[in-house]
Every structure is written in C-alpha cells, then in structure tokens.
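From the shared-data thread, chain only:
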Amino acid sequence: MPSGDVLVLIDDSGRVVEWGRPAEELFGWSAEEAVGRSVTTLMSEAAADGERQREWFLETAAVLVKPVLRGTSVMWQVLSAGDAMSGQDVVILRAMFTHSPVVLHVLDNQLRVVRMSTATGGLHDAPVGHLLGKHFTEACELEDPEEEAAVAQRVLESGEPVVNRLVRRIKAPGRPTRCIHSVSYFRLEDSHGDVAGLVASAVDVTERENAQNRLALLDAVRTRVGHRLNVGIVCQELVEAVVPAFAGIADVEVIEDVIRGNEPPPVPVHRDVPLRRTAFEGRIADHPVEAVRPLPTGTPFSDVLSDLRPRLVSIEEDSSWLAADPARAEVIKRSGSHSLIVAPLALHGHALGVVSFYRHQDPFEEEDVAVASAVCAHAALCIDNARQFMREWIIAQTVQRRFLPQRPATHTTIDVSQLHLPAPQGGGAWYDAIALPGARTALIVGDVAGQGIAAAITMGLLRTAIHTLAALDLQPDELLARLSDTAARLVAARAELPPMDPLSREPLTAGCVIAIYDPVELTCTIARAGLPEPVAVLPGDTSAGLPVPPGPPLAEPGNAPFPATTVSLPEGSTLMMGTAALADEVLVPSGPLRPLLDGAGTRPLPDLRDDIAHALADGNRTGETLMLLARTKALPKDRVLTLSLPADPEAAPIARAAARHQLDVWGVDEETAYTTELIVSELVGNAVRYGAPPLQLRLIFERMLTCEVSDNATSAPQVKHARTIDETGRGLFIIASLADQWGTRYQSQGKTVWAEQPTGVSTERRNGAGRPR
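Structure, as tokens:
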C-alpha cells in the first residue's frame, strides 16, 4: 500500500465520516458499511475476524494519524505510513511536543494551528485546546501580525525556510515586559510533494536580547558621549544615546556651579543649590531647556542628591511627590510616562547632577537600574572632564581677554578694526596698534600655537615684550629678531621645568607680523615671522598681496633673518594682516572669501569686518581666527615742517628760528615753544658736532609734538653727566630732562634722534587749521 494513502477520516466523536478504497481492501467493509459507525467498534470486529486476517493487518497497518480541519472542526485523518515508524521515533516526537524548550506549531496550508506542543514559554498563554483551528497570528498575539503572516506565506509558497527570526509579542499576561522569540518556519510536504502546511518553532530569547540590548546601549554611550569638552554638549550626547534605545524621555539636570567650572558640592546637596536643565530628549517637543531652579524637596530627584542612590519609581496619579513638583508633574502627564529611573551624576562622593529616564510603554525593571547607573557613571566622568576643561577655558579666555587691548585703538593717521573669532578651546592670538614717534603706527598680529592657559600666558609675555621693544623705536625686522630671542628664552625655561609638569612637553610655536606705517612718507615697512603675507587694497580697489619675504617662526633654531620690505601705501589704502587660520580662505588670491575684499577701499571697515566674520562663521574653521584691518590716512602737510640744515654752527640758529615760526603758526603756548626751541637747539648742535651731513630738521604736530634731527652718521648718541666745570656734554641730558621721551631710530643710511612732548594746545585747536590770522 503506497505511503500517504488516505484510509479513514474520523470526526472528534470517533465516528467514521470517510472510508477510502484502501480501507475497503484492508478491512473488507465497503464505504456504505463503515461510514457513520464508531471506529472503535470497527477495529474490534476487525481484530476478531480470524488469525490470518489479524496477522495480515498487523503487517500492513502502519498508519499515520494526522489532525485536519474541515470547516471549523478538527478531524483525524488516518494515512498509510508505508514503512512502520519505530518506537524510538514515537518517543522522540512525543518528547519534542511535550518537553522540549523549542516550542513547535504545526500549521495547515491556511496557516491555521492544527497541532502544537504543550511546553511552556511558547508564543501563547491560552490552553492548547482553545487555539486549535485559529490563524497562528491570532493565537500567538504578535506585535506585527501582518508582517509575520506575510513571512509565513512566503515560506509556504517558496519552500525557502526562514531561520531565527526575532518576533515580539504585545501581550504577555503575568510578564513585566514584551517577550521576544526566535522563530523559524519550515514547509511541510507529503510523499507526493504536495504542500501540507508549515512547522513553526519558537524559542524564548527575551533575556538574551535584553542583555544584548543593555550591552549595546553601554557601548553606544561609551562611543558617543564625551568626545567634546563642553558640559552642555556631553549632556546632549547622553540623551541622544539613550533615547529611544533605553528610555522614551531623558532629562539631564546639572548643578549650576559645575557648569561654571567650579568644584561639585559634597553630598547631601543643600536644597537651595540650583540645577540647570542642560539636555532633554523625548516626546515633549516644547519642553524648555536651560531652566535653572533648585529641586523641590520630597521628590525622587532631590532624594538622589541626598544619598547618590538610584531609584526605580512607578508613576501613579496619586504619587505624593508629583504634588511637590507641579511643573514636572505636568510634563509627565503630557508624556504619558508611567515608569521612572532617577540616577545620580556623581564622582568621588560629589554630586554633579541627576538624570531622569522615563518610559511610557514597557516599565523599567530592576536590571535597568544597574544599566542607568553605568550610563550615568560614564557621563559623570565626561562631565567632570568637561567641567575641568571649561574652568581652564574660562581662565584662559579671561587671561587672553585681559592681555588684548581693552578698548579700540584711536589714531589720527590710521583707522583700525579687528576681527577676532576665538577657537572653542581658546588660543594665543593677539593684535596691537602701537603709536610710535613721528605720527607712525606699528600694526601687529601674533599667534601662539596651542590652547588653554599656557597659550594665553605665553601670548601675554610676548605681547608685553613687543610693547617694551616698540618703545626702542626699532625697525620691524629688528623687532622680530629680539622678539624671537625672547621666545627662545621661554623655550629654554620650559625645558628646565620638572618632567612631571605638562608644560615641559609642550612645544612653543609662535608667529608674528609687524607693519610700521609712516603717514608723512606714506610708506609701510613690514616683516613677518611664520604668518601669512599681508594683503593691501589700494584706493582703486585693486587688492594684492604685499611682497614680504617669509621669515621663520619665532624661537626657530638657527640665525635666519626676518627680512623687511618697505612698500608705498597711498592715503585710503586698506591693509589686512591675519593668522594662518584664515589665510587659505581670505588672504590668498584663490581663497573662496577673497572676493569679499573687492571694493574694500570704499567700504567702512566695520562693515567689511562683519561681512568676513559672517562668511567665516558659515564654514568649518580650525584654530583661532584673528584679522587686523587698517585704513591709512596722510598727515596733513601743514602739520609737518621739514628743513635741510647746513653742517656748521649756523645750523642751530636757523633751526630755532624756523621752529619758533612754525610753533607760532600751530598755536603752541609760550612755555612749550620755549622748551621746543631748547630741544631743537641741542639736537641740531649734537648733529653738527658728532654727526655727518646731510642734516635735516623735522617737526611733526600730531598727538604729540615731535622734534627729529637726522644725519648720515651711525654713531649712537649717549647721555653724559657733565661736571660743573665742563662746557659741553649736557645736550642729551637736557633733552632727557625736558622731553616726555626721546630716542634714536636707525635707517639704512644714518640715524634720526627724536624727542616728544605734549603739544601745548587744546584738542580743538590741534584739530583745527592752526592759529587764526
């Protein structure tokens, strides 16, 4: 008898409803005789029908009994099984359907349940008898029944099995969370190859998946949180890492002093200590961030700050602590949250803040408290690192701000505007516009590489040094050479620090560019050390890089020079010098922002500065950006007296007479005029006695009254302390006593000795055209 032949179909009461031809041949009863009778009676009669028939029946009656659905009724189909099933096979099948942790579901070709194992932990909770005949998605109460039905149907149609598919249940009475099962689908076929249905196996992997999810969460937090040294950013990274993977809502509140970089308070935290909400992520879109307030007492949040112990709280409508914090209660009500974990942000017994995790679906479990604590422990370490950095950053920013010019520089011969975009970590860039004798101005931009307090202090030292050197009236190349010597001494001092001092391992790299503008000659002498080439926009709006040879960075080993270049800058020219951070964007001809300089000669400097600042803010800058913009003015010709002098004793009276006349034109008072005549006489006398022709006198009437005498000798004048009986040697001593300051400036040929004093007239008279006639 072929395997799979249908013998008998029996209803659930045990009566025969179908009797196949193979059954007629086997038992000898026709279908009319067998249908409607009890199968028990028929089998008893067949067993009593003689020895020969019993032996033949025993040899051929290996059958397979299979449940099938007819309409909504379960019937039992008796099939010929061909080869007899061994006793071991039966034992195995019985164990699989009764004791195996792998739950089996036998589905027909309509995906209805026809048989299922009775082991616990399956995809159902109802008794087996109540589930037979139902569609398997209805019987198992799955989270996405339509998707699972589609997957099972594809397996039924294609025969391609699906293995280890994770399936979630939405209903699990008596269980605290959703259940997760690993489900596999296999198609069933009979001996003729016809599709009979499916077998679905399921294993409960809830604990395994939850454990893996917790590990994945901790790994995500360690990977994503703490890469930026900013308390607010760290907190925002934290809430983005845990929502929605761990919680529906996450709320971070940090003690205000911690955000300011101060030390966190010890526990218990005083109830009046304010906390700032630094990050919030979740279902409430309009929840305010940056709210600052103390935590109300009698709530889980304030309790956490008293003992640093995390708390798992079930949120009920009548929870007493909600009344103590009505603002938070309103947010919780709007979110629909019913489960809460409050965990401390703490380090070494000091509190930094609290983190609140809310869920509105699956409630938190005790295992989640440990996860929340681990998350907050990592976040607390990152926040404390950011706090320490922010404290150092605040100090560095304060130091740098104090070292930079405190108010805009005002000069009558040049307009100055600066653009300063600090780096997030601080830096050591600086600028200066220093007034020099002869109405000249030194424009300086410097940059110390690095960040933090060390860079800011080094910047302050170099800036102080350059102010001191500028008072010596040195040329830009000589200024840079001496400034480089100062930087080299700072490098040597760092090298002598103890090895455990971090500063001993930090290299000192600095650059500087110095331009000295002369409004009388309309020239600018420039030298640079490591910084980009300056750019000038001439009155015709033609921009060009100034051909200033590059010099080495400050403190660079070796004796490489800092070559200086003198260029002509007509009145109305715009000079731009900056740090390396903006060279490639603004200063070089191919820079993307170089077109902003077009028309710069006719635009106000503040507008030009703002346009460049806005354009730079739109890009990803690296490093500190500083640019100094200067627009040149010419000193009016009526403010300058230039007179060539003979190289003989007649030079002094000629110079005094010319000076007396010019001072009268400028409206200088009698006392200042008398002092100026005396200074002119002594300067010219020294030049005649010790200098070399040609000699020249120049009086400059600007913010100060400057007397300059130039000659072609290179010898340096010296102050002498003459004895009472000496007839000479008192010239420079007299000048030093009468003038506010005096000095010597060397040119490529010869020198200029100068002396400055107040103009001796009011501001209104000085800004006018001179003494009215």
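Residues 332 and 338 are 8 Å apart (CA to CA).
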